[in-house]
Every structure is written in structure tokens, then in C-alpha cells.
Amino acid sequence: MHTRLYKAFISFLLLIFGQTTQAQVDYDRIVPPPGSRPASFEDYLVQLAWMNNPETSIMDLRKSKEQKEVDLKRQSWKDDVQFGFNINEVSLANVLNPSSDNLIIYPLYQFSTSVSLGTFTTKKKEREIEEDDVKIADEEAKLHKLRIRAETLSRYHKLLLAIETLKLRTKAEEDALNTYNFVKRAFEKLEVTLDDMLRASANYTDATEKRLAAATDVELARLSLEEMIGVKWESLTRIRERYEGQ
Q1: Residue 152 CB-half CA count within 13 A
Q2: pLDDT, tens digit, for every residue of 61-74?
Q3: Long-range contacts, stretch 116-121, CB < 8 angstroms, 24+ apart
Q4: Looking at per-residue confidence, does 113 or 202 come out higher?
Q5: Residues 118, 123, 127, CA angle at the centre, nearest 5°?
Q6: What's the DSSP call for residue 108?
Q7: DSSP string for 174-199
Q8: In the chain, is it the N or the C terminus that has fewer CB atoms within a 10 Å radius of its CB?
Q9: Is the peptide bond prior to 107 cis by the omega test (within 30 degrees of 0)?
């Protein structure tokens, strides 16, 4: 049940971002650029996740590769240009050794240049394909930013929910323990029945189990967020306090 709700929340965030037109989206606000100061602690987490995600580096390398291929295609027409040089050896020999019987045919030498017919058609299309690959890499990077933000904030708020739930479970366990101790003393004075004491004991045990489960949820949510941002949650305490104190 929790997994379905979690996936639905991610899909909802992606849908909201995806419905915004490109002209309206400022991707530097979706993910603050490295070196800039994020406007909020949430933005700071998103920036960390973006910078520490290996897929970000992979996308940068892929775009660089595609751009280099475009540059190569722009220069590849030179490979199709051929130069030729022919010498009229007979006429040249007659010039060097003149005689009234010699026949000299001009020109004595020829330069020639040829270009493949596909150079200005096929090569152009190939370059356009490579340029489209660069554009695709740009769009994939934008989509990656949207996903990074949605996933990071989802995990962060899941951790906050787990922390608050643990506080409630801890308080409930304390109340159940106080009730159990009160009923136990009353039972020793024969003021309550055995069923009352057993019921108080069961309530305390149940509250303890729920508190332990809530503590586990906090740890799992913390690990999940740390996996996303690439740093320990505890190391962000001062930074979070600084943002909250603004």
C-alpha cells in the first residue's frame, strides 16, 4: 500500500512539472546550478542529489560525445575532397630538349579537384542527425532534473513524516507505560481486576511494537534519502538549522 502511494506521488510530481511548457520552466530553479546558493534547504538537498548522482556525469559525458561527433561531421566533408596532379611527360621532355621536330601539347601539367556528390546532401543529413542527438541529450538532462527534484523531495518528506510519526509513537508508548504502572499498583491493592491489568500490559506492548516499527521507518527513510543525496543526514543538521533560522 505504501509503495503504491509513494509511486503515485512521484508520478503526480512528474505530471505537474511535465505539464509546464518549456518556455515557463526555469531549470536553474528546478535544480540550483553547482556553485550557487540554493534558496531553501529543500533546494539544497536537490542540488546535492544532482551533483552526487552518477547519472548526471554520464549525461554530461554523453552530451559532450554527441557534440564532438557533430564537430567531426562538420569537418568530414574534407575527407571527400580529392586532389590530382598530372604531368604531360612527353611535352615536358620536349620543352626541356627543344627540337624543331618536337611536338609540344599544352598544358604541361594539370591540377584537378573532385568532390563526392553526396558531400553536400548525405553529409548534411548525417550532421543534422548528430545535432538532433545533442538536442535529445539536452532534453534528457532536463527530464533528469525533474526526476531528481521529485524523487529527492519525496524521500525528504517521507523522512520528515517518519520522524514525526516516531515522536507520536514514543509519546503513546510513554502514556501506555504510565497507564500500565498505574493499573499495576491498583491491582496490587486489589482495586482493579486481572483483566484490567492484562489489558494495560497488552496496550503497552502494542505501543512499544509500534514505536519500534516507527523507529525502523525513520532509519529506512534516512538511508533512502542519503542514497539520493550522497551524504549523511546527520552532517546536514547545521545547514538545515541555518536555513530554518532565516
Answers
A1: 26
A2: 888 888 887 777 67
A3: 116/80, 118/80, 119/77, 119/80, 119/81, 120/77
A4: 202
A5: 165
A6: S
A7: HHHHHHHHHHHHHHHTT-S-HHHHHH
A8: N
A9: yes
Amino acid at 49: A
pLDDT value, residue 25: 82
Report which residue type is found at 76. S
CB 104 within 8 A of CB 19: no
Tell me the C-alpha distance between 52 and 32, whole Å: 13
* Grid coordinates given for 39: 534558496
Who's near 163: CB < 8 A, 6+ residues apart? 218
Hey, what's the cell of 230? 550522497
CB count within 10 Å of CB 180 equals 19
Separation of alpha carbons 97 and 101, rounded Å: 11
**Taking residues 28-54, what's their average pLDDT?**
93
Cell numbers describing residue 109: 601539367
Q: How far apart are alpha carbons 134 and 68 in whole angstroms?
A: 10
Is the distance from CB of 70 to CB of 134 less than 8 angstroms?
Answer: yes
Question: pLDDT tens-digit profile of 96-134?
Answer: 566 556 555 555 455 666 556 665 667 677 777 778 888
What are the grid coordinates assigned to 240, written together?
A: 538545515
Least confident of 57-61, 98-102, 141-145, 236-240: 98-102
| Residue-averaged pLDDT of the chain | 82
What is the DSSP secondary structure assignment for residue 235, as one 8-state letter? Answer: G
- The burial of 156, by beta-carbon neighbours within 10 Å (0-12 exposed, 13-18 middle, 19 or more buried), is given as buried
Could you report the per-residue pLDDT of 147-198, keeping only the tens digit for each? Answer: 999 999 999 999 999 999 999 999 999 999 999 999 999 999 999 999 999 9
